[in-house]
Amino acid sequence: MDVVTRVEIMRSGHIGRWVAVAGALLVTGACAPANGASSVAAPSTPPSSSSSPGGSPDATPVPSPEQQAAEQPPKGDDPVRVPPPKLSKFTYTFPVRGCSTTYQRRLLTLPKTTIWAAKGCAFVAPVGGVVDEVNIKNRWKPSTDVGADREGRFVTVLGDDGVRYLGGHLDSVADGIRPGVRVKAGRLLGRVGNSGNARDTAPNLYFAISWKAGPSFWWVRRGMVEPWDYLDAWLSGNRTFSPKEETLALRAKVGETPRCSVQCASRTAPQPSRTPRRPSRPSSPEPTVSSDPTATSWGQ
């Protein structure tokens, strides 16, 4: 009896285990996709944006190329012009007014620039200030090439910013422009030409930035600070961009009257010979011919 009972209990235990396994398989089969194994997930399909009257989803409509070309983006507002930041209390203007210009933007020999413009174009004060030097005579000669005369006719202005500005190779100096005259930015100072050592070139303005120094230190006047970055700003950028800081810093570094180091010497003009000439020996006199029939030849 005990043996039979134990056998039945063992059978009932096996049956219970099989029932549990079968139930688990049924549950798993019900949760798994109908077309694949339970371990493989079916790709998800995005829901359609519209459905047909019968309830079936439709494909997302794709516009034709013609429809895409017809689509125009909305027009935006015009850009707002923002003024450049104010970099100094001074306002500058480009030194040649009313003419097409070009100018070099790199150092060749001297820290200055040549502004190419038509003859007669207006040279104007780049900033308010006081006229410092004026030369109305073209004294330069190629035989001597005196350094102080190379810019020909020129005007310098000592700006309110403490910087000196030179315009040289002028064809003429404007009326009323003389040392000590107060000028505003844009005031006519002269007309573009090719005086001085530019006489064999096209008309241009010799433009240089420096600081105040005596006339005998002409190599300071002809240029100490590279000017093209400032010209770029005054022409089409920020008209408050000032060379004051750079100029004063350089003057503090090299001194107010540094020694000339480039193109300093003049030429020596040829001097007439001082060797006395030997008197030439007189030639033998020749008979004179007279229209007077009564006169006789010399020596007869």
Automatic annotation (TrEMBL):
<feature type="compositionally biased region" description="Low complexity">
    <location>
        <begin position="36"/>
        <end position="57"/>
    </location>
</feature>
<feature type="domain" description="M23ase beta-sheet core">
    <location>
        <begin position="117"/>
        <end position="212"/>
    </location>
</feature>
<dbReference type="InterPro" id="IPR016047">
    <property type="entry name" value="M23ase_b-sheet_dom"/>
</dbReference>
<feature type="region of interest" description="Disordered">
    <location>
        <begin position="260"/>
        <end position="300"/>
    </location>
</feature>
<dbReference type="Pfam" id="PF01551">
    <property type="entry name" value="Peptidase_M23"/>
</dbReference>
<dbReference type="InterPro" id="IPR011055">
    <property type="entry name" value="Dup_hybrid_motif"/>
</dbReference>
<feature type="region of interest" description="Disordered">
    <location>
        <begin position="36"/>
        <end position="86"/>
    </location>
</feature>
<protein>
    <submittedName>
        <fullName>Peptidase family M23</fullName>
    </submittedName>
</protein>
<feature type="compositionally biased region" description="Low complexity">
    <location>
        <begin position="281"/>
        <end position="291"/>
    </location>
</feature>
